[in-house]
Amino acid sequence: MKKLIIANWKMQLSIKESLALARQLKKADAIRAEAVICPDYSAIPSVAPILKGSRLMLGAQDAAASSRGALTGEVSPVNLKTLGVRYIILGHSERREHLHENSAIVNDKVKAALENGLIPIVCVGEKRTEREAGKTEEYLRAELHRALKGVKIRTAKDLVVAYEPVWAISTNKNAKPMAPHEAEAIHKFLKAEAKKILRQAIRVIYGGSASPANAAAYLNEPDVDGLLVGGASLKAKTFLPLLR
Ligand code: PGA
C-alpha cells in the first residue's frame, strides 16, 4: 500500500503563500505517496481548484461535531466535503492543549466526519510527563479508546490514526523526533488496540519533527503507514522529498 503523507499547514501561511505552495506542489512529478494537503479553512476554497485533478488530495485541520446548527464559529463537515475535502485531522494536540478539546469531543467529531463521508485522521500522543513516568502505552490506550468509542467503519481505509508524541512536535520546547524503531513498536501497539475497537486493521501514521533527513527511516518501518508533517510541509523544498 502507498504511504500516506499529510501536510498540516496549521495557521502558518497566508492565503497568498498557501496558493503559491499549492501551485508548486501540484507541478511536482515522481510523487509516489498518497499526499494530502491541509490548509487553514480560509485558504481551502482557493487551494481546492488548484489541487483538483492533481495527485494531491485536500484535507482540513478540524471540523465540527455536527453537520449544521447554531454553532457560532464552527465549520461544518458537510461544507468541507462540498469544497472537495477528503480527510479531516481531529484531536490534534495543539487543539487539545490550547482549546481544551478532549477525547469525548474528538469522538463526536470522528462520528460526524464519518457520517459525512470524510476520513478522520485521529491524533493521539503522550506528553513528556507520561513518557517519563513510563505510562505511554497506558495513556495511549485510554486516549484511543475514548476517541474511537462506538465508532463504526466499513473498510480499513475509512479512518487513520496519527501517532504524534507531543514532546516530538517541532514547535514544542526541546522537541526531537522519536527514534524510528521506537515509533514502529508503538505503531504496532496502536494498530492492535484500534483493531480491538474497530474490528479493522487501520493505518497508523507518525508525526513529530518528520523531515527529509529522517522520513525514509520512518517509512521503512513496516507498521509506519505514513507521516503527518507540520514544519517540513511549509516549503516545497522540504515537503516534496517526503512524497517521492
Ligand atoms: P511537526 O508538526 O512536523 O512540525 O513536528 C507535526 C504536527 O504537529 O502535526
Overall outline: globular
Low-confidence stretches: none
* Gyration radius over CA: 17 Å
Structural class by secondary-structure content: alpha/beta
Secondary-structure element order, as H and E?
EHEHEHEHHEHHEHEHEH
* Number of strand segments: 8
Nearest-integer average pLDDT: 96
- Alpha carbon gap, first and last residue: 14 Å
Beta-strand residue fraction:
15-25%
Q: Biggest sheet, in brief? A: 8 strands, parallel, barrel
Could you tell me which ligands this complex binds, including any ions or cofactors?
Answer: 2-phosphoglycolic acid
Query: Counting H and I runs of at least 4 residues, what is the number of helices?
Result: 10
Task: List the strand order in the largest sheet.
Answer: 1-2-3-4-5-6-7-8
How is this structure best described in words?
The protein is α/β, with parallel strands linked by helices. It contains 10 helices and 8 strands. Strands 1-2-3-4-5-6-7-8 form an 8-stranded parallel beta barrel, surrounded by 6 helices. The chain is globular. The mean pLDDT is 96. The site of 2-phosphoglycolic acid (PGA) has 14 residues, from β8.
